[in-house]
Each structure stands twice: as structure tokens, then as C-alpha cells.
Design goal:
The complex is a heterodimer of chains A (259) and B (289). Chain A is built from eight helices and ten strands. Chain A has 259 residues and is α/β, with parallel strands linked by helices. Chain A has a domain at 87-152. A six-stranded mixed beta sheet of chain A has the order 6-7-8-3-9-10, sandwiched between helices. In chain A, helix 7 (195-201) crosses helix 8. The longest helix of chain A has 24 residues, at 235-258. The N and C termini of chain A lie far apart (43 Å). In chain A, 42% of the residues are buried. In chain B, 74% of the residues lie in helices and 0% in strands. Chain B has helices at residues 33-65, 70-73, 76-88, 92-120, 125-140, 147-154, 158-182, 186-194, 199-217, 219-236, 242-251, 255-283. Chain B is an all-alpha fold and 289 residues long. Mean pLDDT of chain B is 89; it is low at 1-17. The chains are: A alpha/beta (259), B mainly alpha (289). Chains A and B meet through helix 3 of A and helix 8 and helix 9 of B.
Chain lengths: 259, 289
């Protein structure tokens, strides 16, 4: 059985009396513990797909199954992290990280007992009582991800979490994320614009096409793990990159033609 | 970047670690912004006190030599004298308590109920849209013009002053809280919902804290408005209060007593202002600057 399944999921919006297809019937089958990236140009329905899986948006048709259970319109079953860190500025880093547990009704003491070792292990030790405004962008994203992790769901959705970071920090964060993923054995869905990032991190890449948003192809990434700096220069990496760039270029051309 | 100079840039992430500052030979002067800042602060305070003194002395002097007519302007020494008399022999203390009491109770009620009203608009978009024009219309009414009716409705006692102070503040606070509600980051709400939060939890963990600075920003204006409401109430009809004292003094042409009232009200107003500064700090405690 798959961990997460999207069966013929679609979403249609009406705008100015016209139906706009944000996402055509799409199927996804994500096995447990896999790292799956979703790439595609803007308007390909990535965010719609994520919002549907997170239960924040109801699909127009289809089903979304987590462990075989339908989770349409039910939020709180998967961890979800957005590009913005969305830390509450009036709370300390520690108080931010335990937010998910707090909402679940875990006592503050117990939540902090779980959070502090994690913060120390994943590079936030000593920052417990700092406010988000005092931290760098990379640190804030770490805190946001730890908050999602601590919420402790098997499936985590990451919507361009490193999109706003500079290239160097980004690479650090990617390696950091792989370490966490290895430690926690979560199933990760990762949206990105960055082909390198997608290949570097993933087991599988879903390529989406815009207008209407639809699934174009599923590409398997068979690069060995653990991955590191060397992975980026492997022949297979380069070949995959060429292939994916080609696919995205097709979309870009067809978009240009349409306009 | 000017690498090689003696400036050591300390990045924010490493603030907690002590950086080792290399020594400079023949160092004669170190730029110390903190020291400069504290010196500027001291001079500012001194200057302020000096200006206050000058104003009082000039007032006294001008009225003594007749540049200002002391019948209209009174003068500081007479004001102090008259004030002392009404404090020891008159009812100044009772009046003061009456006016401050009505102002503070009206302010607290207005701020509290106004905040609840403003925050309540988060719960339903439809409710918020329907009530919006009425809130704006109520805000547009010059509440003081209603004062005579309110005095008829609630009598010439304490409660009519509280009601006026309340009316002056409630809508201002409600509008501030409403703006605060509109300013809540939708993505923050979304994030909380994705963590399985209920609407109650989103309200208490995101909406109230987000709106708090907006509500707090209305406090300083509100305390002055509440005082104005109370005084107008006392002007219209009252047996007690500083406002009544001023009105009475004016009717018997005792300008000295009028000035006593004005000075006392100013002092009360300043104290209340300081009170709201403290309240602001209290409500926003545990937040970064």
C-alpha cells in the first residue's frame, strides 16, 4: 500500500464567469519514506495540489488517501511548511517550535523537553530564547522545519522552503534537510522551481505542466545515497538535468505560443 | 568591503560569542556611540527642565510687571496659593477623585468592550461587512453633541460621566482592533490550520496577538478622549468634578480658580498618559522591540 495517494484529483476555479482548470485529474502514488519533488513553472497547480493534500482546499473531484484513509478537507494530518517561515514574531524560537504540540494539547513542559534536544542536534542550540527577528533566513527556515517535524506527522509537505535563501545557504539547508530526512524516515513532498535542488534531494520527480495544470511525467532519480557535493557533478545528475530542462523548455515554448 | 581595516563586523548569528578585537597602536580616541547617546540624553533632559522653568518664570514676571493682565492670565504663585486653599479648605481632592474615577472607568470599559467588538469581526466576514457602515456612522457622530441627552438619560451623577468617557473611546478602539484583525497575515492563519488548529486556537494564538499592537496604539488617544468626555459631562450638569469646579469658577469670574482647574487637569492628563505608557509595556511584554 502507498503512504499517500492522490486519485484523479482535480480542481476547477471560476473566475469572471469562466472555468479555470488549476489542476486536471492527477494521480500520485507515494510509497512510505520516499522523497518526492514536484517541479513545474508557475501556474502548473503545485500549490493547489499541496493545499488539497494539506486539507486546506477541497478538490473538485477525486480522492486523497493517507494510509488508505480519505483525508479530503481534513487539515492537520500532514505537516506543511511554506516558503515563508511563518514564525510568530512575538514568540521565542522555542515557543514557535512547540506550537504544533501546543495545539495538540501537549503540556508546555513536555513539549519543550522534546524540542530542546532537536534544536541542539539540528543547529539551533542556544537560540531557544531568541526572537525570530534576531535570526538569519536560514535559521528561521530551520526553526520552521523543526516545528513541522515536531508536529510529528508521517508525511511532510514542503512548499519551496528554501526559495528565498541565497545559493550558499540553500546548499547547506539541502544537506541539512537530507540529514533530517535520513534520521526521521518521513515521507517528503517537496515543491521547487530549482531543477538542481529537485534532483539532488529526490527519489522521484513529478513534472507538472501549466494551463491547464496537469501531471506531465514522473522521473525516477537513481543517484546513490548519501548524496553530497560530488553528486552534483555525476554524469547521471547532468543527464537528468538535461532531460528535465528539456521538458520545462517545451512547456515554456507552448506557453509563449499561446500568448 | 574594506578588509584589513580595524573594523570587526560581527554578524548577528554570532552575537552570543565574544569576538576578539585586535588592538590598534597609538589609539587616542575610540568612537563610542553609547556614551555619546547617554550624554545627548542627559543634555536633553536638562534642556527640557530649563525650558519649563523659563516658561513659569516668564509667566510670573510678565503678569507682575503688567505685560500680561493677571486678571485673565492669573500667575503661577497665585495659582499655587489658590490651589492650596481649595485643596485644604475646598473640595479639590474630592473633585479630582471624581473626575479621574469617571475617566478611568470609562476608559477601561471603552477600551475593553471596543477591543472585543473590533476583534469579533474576525469571526464572520458577513457580520463584519454588514456592521461596517454602522460603525463608521457611529464614529462620525460627534459624541459630545449627544452629551445633554445622555445626562438626561443617565442623570447628573457619576454614571453619565462614565458613559460619556466610554462613548468617546469605544468606537476608536473598535476601529483600531478591526484594522488589527484585517492586518493578520493570512498565511499565519493557514499555517495554524495546517497544524490542525481550531478557529478558537487561531483566534487566541494569532489574531489577538497580531491585533494587540493596534489596540495598544489607540490607548494614548483614548485616555485623552475619555478625560474630555468626562469634563464635558461635568460642564453640562454635575455636582462634583474638576469640570464643574472650572465652570463654577468661570461663572463667578474667579479666573484664578479656573487656572487651578486647568493646571490640575493637565497634571492628571500627564499622569494618565504615563499610565498608558506603562500599560502598553505591560500588554506588549515578552515581545521583541
Amino acid at each position: 500500500m502507498y503512504k499517500l495517494e492522490v486519485v484523479e484529483g482535480s480542481k476547477v476555479f471560476r473566475k469572471g464567469g469562466q472555468d479555470i482548470i488549476a489542476l486536471q485529474e492527477t494521480n500520485m502514488k507515494i510509497p512510505e519514506g520516499k522523497f518526492v519533488s514536484i517541479i513545474g513553472p508557475s501556474g502548473c497547480g503545485k500549490s493547489t495540489l499541496f493545499n488539497m493534500i494539506a486539507g486546506l482546499l477541497k478538490p473538485s473531484s477525486g480522492e486523497i488517501l493517507l494510509d488508505g484513509q480519505n483525508i479530503i478537507g481534513k487539515s492537520g494530518h500532514v505537516g506543511y511548511m511554506l516558503q515563508k517561515d511563518l514564525l510568530l514574531p512575538w514568540r521565542t524560537i522555542l515557543a514557535n517550535i512547540i506550537l504544533g504540540l501546543e495545539l495538540k494539547g501537549v503540556s508546555k513542559k513536555e513539549a519543550e523537553k522534546r524540542a530542546i534536544p532537536l534544536m541542539e542536534k539540528y543547529g539551533l542550540g542556544g537560540f531557544e530564547n531568541h526572537y525570530p527577528g534576531e535570526l538569519s533566513g536560514g535559521m528561521k527556515q530551520r526553526a520552521a522545519l523543526l516545528r513541522t517535524l515536531l508536529y510529528d506527522q508521517d508525511v511532510i509537505l514542503l512548499d519551496e522552503p528554501f526559495g528565498a535563501l541565497d545559493a550558499q545557504t540553500r546548499l547547506l539547508m539541502q544537506t541539512w534537510l537530507l540529514q533530517i530526512w535520513g534520521d526521521f524516515k518521513k515521507t517528503v513532498l517537496f515543491v521547487t522551481h530549482d531543477i538542481d535542488e529537485a534532483i539532488y534531494l529526490s527519489d522521484e520527480i513529478y513534472v507538472l505542466s501549466p494551463r491547464p495544470g496537469r501531471l506531465k511525467e514522473i522521473v525516477a532519480v537513481n543517484l546513490p545515497r548519501p548524496r553530497g557535493q560530488d553528486t552534483l557533478s555525476m554524469l547521471e545528475f547532468v543527464n537528468l538535468k538535461k532531460r528535465l530542462l528539456g521538458m520545462l523548455k517545451e512547456d515554456q515554448e507552448s506557453l509563449n505560443k499561446a500568448e | 568591503m574594506n578588509s584589513g581595516s580595524n573594523n570587526v563586523a560581527v554578524s548577528k548569528d554570532h552575537m552570543t560569542q565574544r569576538s576578539v578585537v585586535p588592538k590598534v597602536k597609538n589609539q587616542s580616541e575610540v568612537d563610542d556611540p553609547e556614551q555619546r547617546e547617554s550624554r545627548t540624553k542627559n543634555i536633553t533632559l536638562l534642556g527640557r527642565i530649563l525650558v519649563g522653568f523659563l516658561i513659569v518664570i516668564a509667566w510670573e514676571l510678565f503678569t507682575r510687571v503688567g505685560i500680561l493682565d493677571s486678571y485673565y492670565w492669573s500667575n503661577p504663585s497665585t495659582i499655587v496659593q489658590t490651589g492650596w486653599t481649595s485643596l485644604t479648605e475646598g473640595s479639590l481632592l474630592m473633585d479630582l477623585a471624581y473626575t479621574s474615577g469617571a475617566t478611568i472607568i470609562g476608559f477601561i470599559l471603552g477600551t475593553f468592550i471596543g477591543s472585543l467588538l473590533g476583534l469579533s469581526f474576525w469571526w464572520s466576514d458577513l457580520y463584519s461587512r454588514i456592521s461596517e457602515p454602522y460603525i463608521i456612522a457611529f464614529n462620525a457622530i460627534p459624541k459630545l453633541a449627544l452629551a445633554p441627552v445622555l445626562v438626561i438619560m443617565f442623570g447628573i451623577g457619576f454614571s453619565s460621566k462614565v458613559i460619556l468617557a466610554f462613548m468617546m473611546t469605544v468606537i476608536v478602539t473598535a476601529l483600531a482592533a478591526k484594522s488589527g484583525v484585517h492586518s493578520v497575515d493570512k498565511d499565519l492563519e493557514k499555517m495554524l490550520f495546517s497544524l490542525g488548529a481550531s478557529r478558537n486556537q487561531v483566534f487566541s494564538k494569532v489574531v489577538i496577538p497580531s491585533a494587540m499592537p493596534w489596540i495598544v496604539s489607540s490607548l494614548k488617544i483614548n485616555i485623552a478622549l475619555a478625560l474630555a468626555g468626562t469634563i464635558v459631562g461635568e460642564f453640562i450638569s454635575s455636582r462634583q468634578g474638576i469640570g464643574r469646579m472650572i465652570l463654577y469658577a468661570g461663572q463667578i469670574m474667579d479666573t484664578n480658580l479656573v487656572w487651578v482647574g486647568v493646571v490640575v487637569l493637565s497634571a492628571v492628563s500627564i499622569l494618565m498618559y504615563l499610565g498608558t505608557v506603562w500599560l502598553e509595556r505591560f500588554l506588549l511584554q515578552g515581545r521583541p522591540q
